[in-house]
Design a protein that fits this description.
The structure holds 2 protein chains of 2 kinds. Chain A has helices at about 5-15, 30-45, 60-70, 80-85, 90-95, 120-125, 140-155, 180-185, 215-245, 270-280, 300-305, 325-335, 355-370, 385-395, 405-410, and strands at about 1-5, 20-25, 50-55, 75-80, 100-105, 130-135, 160-165, 175, 205, 250-255, 260-265, 285-290, 295, 310-315, 340-345, 375-380. Chain A is of the alpha/beta class. In chain A, helix 3 packs parallel to helix 5. The N and C termini of chain A lie far apart (about 60 Å). In chain B, strands 2-1-3-4-6-5-7-8 form an 8-stranded mixed beta sheet, with helices on both faces. In chain B, a hairpin with a 2-residue loop joins strand 7 (about 270) and strand 8 (about 275-280). The longest helix of chain B is centred in the last third of the chain and has 18 residues, at about 310-325. Classes of the chains: A alpha/beta, B alpha/beta. Chains A and B meet through strand 3, helix 3, helix 5 and strand 9 of A and strand 1, strand 2, helix 3 and helix 5 of B. Strand 9 (about 205) of chain A pairs parallel with strand 2 of chain B.
């Protein structure tokens, strides 16, 4: 049924229709509306049987999900930003133990400086944690990916993180198709765990493994995740057949046929990028967009195929690796090894800064005119003057003070006197 | 209420002599049908108090639940010595996740069982003092205050033994550890630090809190049985001497555990809903010196000249426990 809904409410309903048996929750913006809605559904009995655990931290939230999953329950939690970092140790543990927990990550920047708005620093920091990472470009995609995520997780016995942009998606209200209980029940089978804590058949889960077999266990973690490259498209096709709309998959091509320039991105910015592609196509440019829905495992072959023959690949990403540069860009470059395509790493939309059509159009123009250096990190809409003033202060004065305060004063946000 | 201790004056021990008892009074361990939840072949040191404690706790819990127990273990000695790849000493469903999250994992297991309608299966979380009092304390407190149906057992050997005997929040004052060495003006661990986990557990007003030692195994089993009669969060704090970390003889583990209680340094009691309901009285009160002398972690107190001032401070702590918990029979206390 099509309904006008907030992204978080919609995701909560989709999750509830997947019948999680244990939900652990700890508040952190911008994820809170999801677990609030689930709390309501458990309290009213709309979602039953389900145990809703109000834990004392994100570390406990993931730990409780681990325990629930190991005991054979379908387990779900949600977090963002600092919360994801706080549960980092447990993230590696869930994947290492092969427990199919599903988690929503409402993507948010990581401090310091503290910032509650959207970027992908949180998800990218855990890209190697052994979790499958799916990125939603819209709220409809977020809804649909959650349904697919449970099936994917349980089929592979691996945890799946569904990433949706904080505020941009979580708090946006729009008309959405919420799958019915009957549809979800038909698509998602009852969870049959590969390993379970059962007094009838006692097993040891989480034993120590030394050098004699650690490599092999880690190999299996990789091999299992790589199976998702086949399974994700299969589940997307099944989903389309069951629900009557395409959703999910590894990649999403948008007007890539014959394109000389392709913008690559993850998440909600794809909407803006597709608008820009439409505008430029109308103006006769040979341009397209490639959305990466499944970032872990990384679909190297599919990306290589999608970008072969493209002159310029502009990777627009909402996070970067300090000290080296683009994260998605580096992965894309590996996919294109040996091909003549030139890759541009563009960091954009950090800490909630809007990525506008105008900025993207300017970017494309600059790239096409050769004004952006390839294989170097480029910051979209960087206020260079502001940065240079702070760099100047650093040179002039040993005790130059905190960056954030200095810069905010320059911007005029902080009315404090200067030191 | 705790059972009156079974006394074997002829052997001077509370632990030995099951064969002297009536069948029904004998320890779980004397039963041929015992579950051996932690079975032979594990790699614990000779004289390990933790292995002994865990075996008694889990077997008692297994008997109380007709073998329907799931154990969640924190990282630490107990986890490492029981699961050397590719072997496992566990004969019950057992999961180890991380160092600091055992209570939360146990909460998750309990929630799963509840959702699945498996009220017959019970959950035990367990860890050492570091995993419980330090790194796992937030998760423990959260599990308590939520009222989750978990018995959490802390095997307290008063330091981080698995990593090589470093100080924890349960290390007693003056004790030598690798991070509180007997060097400098105030040798050993500082006075006035550390935390009393059983009292903090009681402050959560949970249904059951008890302390025990591996010297009185009938008492330990009785407390596990009592804990398994109740639902909601329960906490059992078991003192388990560590020959390696304490610098004691393997043969003295039981003796030292008994002295910890008989000196008053480790009060043995039970509390329900935040109130003490029973106390194991001291049978034959001894000076702390008798306890300290058996352990090389306190050897620096007995040098030349001895640190009588420090020993007096430790005695004062024992005396305070005696007053605070009423550890002496009234006639003796008067």
């Amino acid at each position: 049924m099509r309904e006008q809904l907030e992204g978080s409410q919609a995701v909560a309903r989709a999750v509830a229709r997947c019948r999680p048996e244990v939900v652990s929750a700890y508040p952190i913006s911008p994820q809170t509306h999801i677990v609030e809605a689930l709390s309501d559904m458990v309290r009213t009995g709309e979602l039953a049987p389900c145990e809703y655990l109000l834990v004392e931290s994100e570390f406990a939230a993931m730990s409780a999900a681990i325990g629930a999953s190991a005991a054979g329950a379908r387990a779900y939690t949600a977090t963002a930003s600092q919360g994801l970092l706080y549960m980092a140790e447990a993230l590696y543990n869930a994947s290492g133990l092969g427990l199919p927990v599903v988690m929503t990550l409402a993507n948010r920047a990581i401090g310091a400086p503290i910032n509650i708005w959207n970027d992908h620093s949180d998800a990218m920091s855990q890209r190697d944690s052994g979790w499958i990472q799916l990125y939603a470009e819209s709220n409809q995609a977020a809804v649909d990916l959650h349904v697919q995520a449970f099936k994917l997780a349980e089929e592979l016995s691996l945890p799946v993180m569904v990433c949706m942009d904080g505020f941009v998606l979580t708090h946006a209200v729009e008309p959405l198709e919420i799958p019915s209980q009957e549809q979800v029940d038909a698509y998602l089978p009852v969870y049959t765990p590969r390993q379970v804590l059962d007094p009838e058949v006692p097993v040891t889960i989480g034993a120590m493994v030394g050098p004699e077999a650690f490599t092999e266990v880690r190999y299996l973690a990789h091999a299992k995740q790589m199976q998702a490259l086949d399974l994700v498209p299969e589940l997307a096709a099944e989903f389309a057949a069951s629900f009557g709309r395409p959703s999910g998959g590894l990649l999403r091509r948008y007007r890539t046929e014959g394109a000389e320039t392709i913008l690559v991105a993850l998440g909600s910015v794809l909407g803006t990028i597709e608008d820009v592609v439409d505008e430029l196509r109308d103006e006769g440019e040979r341009i397209g967009a490639l959305g990466i829905t499944c970032f872990r495992p990384f679909p190297l072959d599919e990306i290589r195929e999608a970008l072969t023959g493209v002159t310029r690949v502009v990777v627009v990403e909402r996070a970067f690796a300090v000290g080296i540069g683009g994260i998605v860009g580096q992965n894309v470059r590996l996919a294109l090894a040996g091909l003549p395509s030139v890759v541009y790493d563009v960091v954009a939309g950090l800490g909630g800064r809007a990525i506008t059509r105008r900025s993207l159009r300017n970017l494309v123009e600059e790239v096409q005119e050769g004004r952006v250096e390839p294989n170097r990190l480029h910051f979209l809409d960087l206020d260079r003057k502001l940065v240079e003033r702070e760099l100047q202060r650093l040179q002039e004065k040993r005790r130059s003070g905190p960056h954030a305060e200095n810069i905010l004063r320059d911007v005029g946000v902080v009315a404090a006197r200067s030191h | 209420m705790a059972r009156p201790p079974v006394k074997f004056f002829q052997v001077g021990s509370f632990a030995a002599g099951n064969r002297l008892l009536d069948e029904e009074e004998r320890s779980v361990q004397a039963d041929h049908g015992r579950s051996n939840a932690l079975t032979k072949g594990h790699r614990a040191c000779q004289g390990c108090g933790e292995a002994l404690g865990a075996r008694y706790v889990l077997d008692a819990a297994m008997r109380a639940t007709e073998n329907r127990v799931i154990a969640v273990n924190a990282t630490g000695c107990l986890e490492v010595f029981s699961t050397p790849y590719p072997e496992s000493s566990w004969q019950l469903p057992w999961v180890h996740s991380l160092f600091g999250n055992a209570p939360a994992v146990a909460s998750g297991v309990a929630a799963a069982l509840k959702a699945k309608g498996r009220a017959d299966v019970r959950v035990i979380g367990q860890g050492g003092d570091g995993g419980t009092l330090d790194i796992g304390f937030a998760c423990l407190s959260g599990m308590f205050e939520r009222g989750d149906d978990v018995l959490y057992v802390c095997y307290d050997n008063e330091a981080y033994m698995n990593t090589g005997v470093q100080r924890s929040g349960a290390t007693p004052p003056a004790a030598r550890t690798a991070t509180t060495k007997p060097v400098g003006a105030e040798p050993g661990n500082a006075f006035g630090q550390g935390k009393n986990a059983p009292l903090i557990a009681m402050a959560h007003e949970i249904p059951y809190v008890a302390t025990a030692t591996v010297a009185e195994l009938h008492d330990l089993e009785a407390k596990v049985e009592r804990a398994m009669e109740l639902h909601g969060p329960r906490y059992l704090h078991v003192l388990v001497p560590c020959p390696l970390g304490w610098g004691s003889e393997s043969r003295d583990t039981i003796r030292i555990a008994r002295l910890a209680k008989e000196t008053g340094l480790f009060p043995v009691f039970e509390a329900e809903h935040g109130e003490v309901v029973s106390v194991s009285k001291i049978r034959r009160r001894v000076a702390v010196e008798e306890y300290l002398r058996l352990q090389r972690r306190f050897a620096h107190l007995f040098g030349d000249p001895p640190r009588t001032d420090v020993i007096e401070r430790l005695q004062a702590l024992a005396d305070r426990n005696v007053r605070r918990f009423g550890l002496l029979e009234e006639a003796e206390a008067a």
